Amino acid sequence: MELNSVVESLENQSILVTGATGYIAKLFVEKLLRVQPNPKQLFLLLRAPNSASAAQRFNNEVSGGEVFRVLRAKHGLKYDTFISEKVTPIAGDISLQNLGINDATLINNIRKDVDFVANFAASTKFDERYDDAILTNTMGAKHVVEFSKKCEKLKLFLHISTAYVWGEKAGLILENPLRMGETLNGTKSPELDIEVEMKLVLGRLNELKANQVSPKEEMIAMKEFGLERARLFGWPNTYVFTKAMGEMIIGESKEHDHKVVILRPPIVSSTLKEPFPGWMEGVRTIDSVILACGKGKLRCFPVNPQTVVDIPGDMVVNAAIVAMVGHGNQPSNENVRSIYHPGSSARAPLLCAKLPHYAYNYFYKNPMKSPPSKGETSGKPIKIPYLFIFPTMTSFSFFFYVTCVFPVKVLLLLNTLVFFDYFHDICSNAERKIKFIQRMIELYTPYALFKGIFDDSNTERLRMEVRLNEAEANTFYFDPKCINWEDYFMNVHIPGLVKYVFK
């Protein structure tokens, strides 16, 4: 693939972006507007009932947010005018046909004008309700790709997925597509049929409504149903299962001249450099573990020391823009299905074994504070234990039982024998901590014990094209070899995480 100037190629281009209030999408929009001030139009699809609500949500959650502060400073008093001229917020919902856009004239205008469609919309909770996850991650992908095929001058459809669509696969994971109906545990599971899954979702919802369960009971039941279906076919959670099905649908949308790029980032962390270091939104997988360490709630965790975990958000966005423009500039008769792993595991890995060291050193020097007791103006610094890691679930389970579960069982027994409920508060606090740790383990162990390496051969070829132009390479950096992981975690990511949680 021959890559022309990325910045110049973005001039006078119209781009439809879904999921515009998400973390990666905000970075994507901000970067586009910062490096290329003359796009034709950015159409941002936001989940909202009407255009006024979409505009309000855009102002509150996107353009008015901290991540746009560099762009805001760049344009000064003209910022609002610049945004209003270049960005059109649109009320919609990708779980619906035509992306939930009700204005037929607007639909026609978008289809006539759009050069690129970038689908960032996703439900990312590991234990999301199955109905919500499949509507957004699976049917949403179907609706967006169908909409893109009706755009008259479309150059490319960009879809943001996840590297973990291959579940807990070990070894080298290639930048290959998933086949329709493919499962991850072979003959152990029945055939995967997306239409059947949709019918099962509707059936379960109707069953719950017929039983007149409470909203909370319905939510719990649908979360459990999603995990049950995901694990039946070999995926560890509802999120990656429904994202995998979304990729399958996109892979089936084979039409002449319809170019598709699928970007599969691994776990995404705070920004390395742009628009400024350490920006983040949302507490992600490794962040929950880091925060639990800082609060003194976590003494041990099952972790494969060789597991690779990370890539900063700005590097993901740079890879997305370069791939989108690079393939979009190829001859129109070239039918492209390209997949990229913009991660660090193949060339500049951060091993999980180092994370406890980084977390302990940071919070030892910069301790978090406990909630203030009655009469105190501020809490006391939290003394944190060093986090012990166990390379297998067997070794972890034994240690966890002996040091955490068994002592609580002894106290509960003593509580029963003495009849005074003397240890009630101690046991209640300990049980809460145990349940918290058990929940974290259930959700995050598939990633903490992950034994795969994400091949990035396609991504490296993309990097090689960018390196041919030094200015472009500096603008659209996504080579993980430039990351000093210790400096990044100690001086960028963990400070950014603490700032975000306690802002």
Automatic annotation (TrEMBL):
The keyword Lipid biosynthesis applies. It catalyses: a long-chain fatty acyl-CoA + 2 NADPH + 2 H(+) = a long-chain primary fatty alcohol + 2 NADP(+) + CoA. Residues 431-503 form the Fatty acyl-CoA reductase C-terminal domain. One of its GO terms (biological process) is long-chain fatty-acyl-CoA metabolic process. It holds the Pfam family Sterile. Keywords: Lipid biosynthesis, Lipid metabolism, Membrane, NADP, Oxidoreductase, Transmembrane, Transmembrane helix. It is an enzyme of class 1 (oxidoreductase). It comes from the Eukaryota. SUPFAM superfamilies: NAD(P)-binding Rossmann-fold domains (SSF51735). Gene3D superfamilies: NAD(P)-binding Rossmann-like Domain. The chain crosses the membrane at residues 398-423. Residues 17-319 form the Thioester reductase (TE) domain. Its EC number is 1.2.1.84. GO terms for molecular function: alcohol-forming long-chain fatty acyl-CoA reductase activity; alcohol-forming very long-chain fatty acyl-CoA reductase activity. Catalyzes the reduction of fatty acyl-CoA to fatty alcohols. PANTHER family: FATTY ACYL-COA REDUCTASE 3, MALE STERILITY PROTEIN 2-RELATED. Belongs to the fatty acyl-CoA reductase family. This is Fatty acyl-CoA reductase. It comes from Papaver nudicaule (Iceland poppy).
